[in-house]
Amino acid sequence: MSSSARNFIRRLPKAELHVHLEGSVTPELLLELGRKYSSEYAQLSLQEIRTRLFQYENFSAFLNTYRVVCEHLREPADYLMVLEHLLHGFQEQNIRYAEVIYTPSIAWKMGRDGKAILMQLLDRCTRFHPTSAISIHWILDCVRQWGREAADKTAHLAEEFRGRGVKAIGLGGDENSLPLEGYRETFAWARAHGLFCHVHAGETGGPEQVWGAIHVLGANRIGHGFQAARDAGLMEYLREHALGLDICLTSNIKTRAWGLLSSHPFQLLYRRGVPVTLNTDDPGLFETSLPQEYEKAAQLGLQRSDLARIALQSVQSAFLAHPEKTALMQQFQDEIYQLGKEDAETLG
Ligand code: ADE
Ligand code: ZN
């Protein structure tokens, strides 16, 4: 990739719609937490942490590392440290808007105060916005394999903080575990209370999972969803109903949800007019960043104009109220126009 292409991607205003806070723990942060809590990882070198924990033979190995990382998040200060790292990355990567996924049921399962953690995270973001002009919203995720009770508790927490930074309820975890049907009422309740609905589907499961996310849970956006490329009718439905897919290329290769980047269905989905965006999913666990995701899309054949379109699609697919979305869209459009003009001057 040329340095001019890399520079274009860096300067492109970007929005990140799918990034897990817990998955933002890097090997360095895990080592720091390991030392703080004298865990078995405190003795390892960074390289050992990378090879033993941050490489995944399959999806369940990835979920296992996720568990290990979360065991090291014990108090609000730990979550805040991860958030600080994430916010710094947003500034460096020219990310103007982000929807961050936090999973309170992980904290509850480990005996921590999931609500107190959320309150501190929201408070930090409120203070961050005026100084950085980066706005952050939150998706509170339920875990597919943990059932209805924890999901209801998550929905109630999301509702309590709706309008104070929380925009949506989500469902993540292992889509091949419990059926979606068990979450129908929880998600209907959340939608009736003004929350958007975000569902991980069509990552390790097939197109039927995406159909279920739409028809059973009323999803407003799908996490991953690339398996929709196996179903022409589904791609058409997503396009017609403006239902976005959060594509996470590095994630799909590292978790082995997909084999080779060169044959990833992303291109097909994009060419068919499915509203796709580019995202990192778990930037710490996959050691990636949003510019790197755009670079991978460029390697797959996308031109600068395509990348700009995807950046604008991220604004379009965001869980934002109309006036906020319009303002952000205008800002992105103006900057992208300027970027195109500068590019033409340099080239011509
Ligand atoms: N939670 C964090 N990353 C995830 C992924 N890739 N799939 C499902 N749940 C997740
Ligand atoms: Zn995810």
Short description:
Helix content is 54%, strand content 14%. It contains 17 helices and 8 strands. The protein has an 8-stranded parallel beta sheet with strand order 1-2-3-4-5-6-7-8, sandwiched between helices.
Give a verbal description of the structure.
Helix 11 links the parallel strand 6 (about 220-225) and strand 7. This protein has about 350 residues and is an alpha/beta fold. It has a single domain (about 5-340), classed as TIM Barrel (Alpha-Beta Barrel), CATH 3.20.20. The protein has 17 helices and 8 strands. About 45% of the residues are buried. It has helices at about 5-10, 25-35, 45-55, 60-70, 75-90, 105-110, 115-130, 150-160, 185-190, 205-215, 230-240, 250-255, 265-270, 285, 290-300, 305-315, 320-345, and strands at about 15-20, 95-100, 135-145, 165-170, 195-200, 220-225, 245, 275-280. The mean pLDDT is about 95. It binds adenine and zinc ion (ZN). The site of zinc ion has 6 residues, from strand 1.
CATH architecture: Alpha-Beta Barrel
Question: What is the CATH topology classification name?
Answer: TIM Barrel
Q: Looking at the structure, what is the overall shape?
A: globular
Q: What do we call the CATH homologous superfamily?
A: Metal-dependent hydrolases
The ordered string of helix (H) and strand (E) elements is HEHHHHEHHEHEHEHEHEHHEHHHH
| Number of H/I helices | 17
How many strand segments? Answer: 8
Q: How confident overall, as mean pLDDT?
A: 97
Radius of gyration: 19 Å
Largest sheet: 8 strands, parallel
Q: What is the percentage of strand-forming residues?
A: 5-15%
- Bin the helical content: 40-55%
What small ligands are held by the chains? adenine, zinc ion
Spans where pLDDT lies below 50 across 5 or more residues: none
Separation, N- and C-terminal Cα atoms: 20 Å
- Class of secondary structure makeup: alpha/beta
Q: How many distinct domains? A: 1
- CATH class label: Alpha Beta
What's the arrangement of strands in the largest beta sheet? 1-2-3-4-5-6-7-8
